Amino acid sequence: MSDQRNLVIAIALSVGIIFAFQFFYEMPRRQAQERLAAEQAQQAQTLPKGEVAGQAPGMAPSGAMAGTAMSRADALAQSPRVKIDNGAVHGSLALKGGRLDDVTLARYRETIDPSSPEIVLLSPPGAPNPYFAEYGWVAGDAATVMPGPETLWSAEGGELTASNPVTLRWDNGQGLAFAKQVELDPDYMFTIRRSVTNTSDKPVTLYPYGLISRWGTPHTLGYYILHEGPIGVLDGHLQEWKYAKVAEEGKVEFDSTGGWLGITDKFWLASLVPPQDMTLKAGFRHQTEGDRYQADYRGAAVTVAPGQTVETTDRLFAGAKVVTLLDRYRDTYNIPLFDRAVDFGWFYFLTKPIFYILHWIHGVVLNYGIAILILTLLVKAAFFPLADKSYRAMAQMKKLQPKMTELREKYGDDKVRMNQELMNLYKTEKVNPVSGCLPIVIQIPVFFALYKVLFVTIEM
Prior knowledge:
Blueprint: H1 2-44, H2 72-76, E1 81-85, E2 89-94, E3 100-109, E4 118-122, E5 131-139, E6 154-156, E7 166-171, E8 176-184, E9 189-198, E10 204-215, E11 229-234, E12 237-240, H3 243-249, E13 251-257, E14 260-264, E15 268-273, E16 279-287, E17 292-299, E18 302-304, E19 309-320, H4 323-333, H5 348-365, H6 368-382, H7 384-399, H8 401-411, H9 415-429, H10 438-456
Antiparallel strand pairs: 1-2, 2-3, 3-4, 5-10, 6-7, 7-8, 8-9, 9-19, 10-17, 10-18, 11-12, 11-14, 13-16, 14-15, 15-19, 16-17
Helix pairs in contact: 1-6, 5-6, 5-10, 8-9
């Protein structure tokens, strides 16, 4: 009965700790973050900005726009735009420069108030804290006129929706016709099909590139167990770089075939997904002027013969890090380790299954709070044999206390002899002094993984 009482007390304490953590720590922390975000957004309206430029690996800057920061709305008005609306993403595609620089997340708000503004993910150059994606080509010959940040593309297709793609076109006047067909699924994955048609009488060498540029070091939570900043999987290896480390290095580069790379916040991700069979030079870089961070890649040279059209298909994820969605994209497009955009950490082999168990329970009870309670009970039940063994071991140790006290009194001045006698006592009574602690040690990674799930996943 005593063992059962201790088990009930342990479960009650576990539940109490979870609720206390949420009420006294997590809720005040989130409220403080919301206030800080609001203050930063207000202050950003008056912060001066320098030139606007993106830079892909091994290339000169793709262009610059001088001036001071304006409001986000005014910055958006600097270019003709194609509206974006698939139900999950709102925003627009800039025809000047052909950039994707206006994305808000329709399913998520800045506060729990459903009338509060949508989460802003991408913003255009000229606005406070620009954050945008760009795809293009670099010419092997400097004399070849290429599209840049001031290039005005024409658009075909109307509004970009989940069922309606948009095509951007531009001709360089030297026999090269450029096109970008942009598609968007019902969630957060853009597909960009770039093509170049050569109508001249000379072959042209081009290099495809993609970049994500973010200006200004964003506020991060700063927790050791959470990565925020440049991230990717290149050459099969997960790369997680802090903003400060990239700023210190200036640039870090990797050779890879396929993979993905971008910039992550706790719950949001903007990521380039090049063709998985493309050989590329990829990396992260920082430019001190304007405090600009960039994730980018450049593919191998492509020769476009006279009369030929070449095409490459890229993808861009810009949205919330919903675990089931990342898993689906990973499997559908063969994106290696794409689910690692969620920081499941060293105990991935525990954290991911725990998430899916919670997710399944939620599908039954339709409440994550109740799902957490049920999972806590299941974990306790699973560890009951170990807990029972621990309780029995502690009870045996308690029975030995009088004999251990006698040995300490008898051999207190001779530590070596006392330890020998204690070992003989344990052997005679068939008691393992560490068996009471071992079950607790085994449970620590499991409960840490549970805490990690609650902390890093947007579903929670």
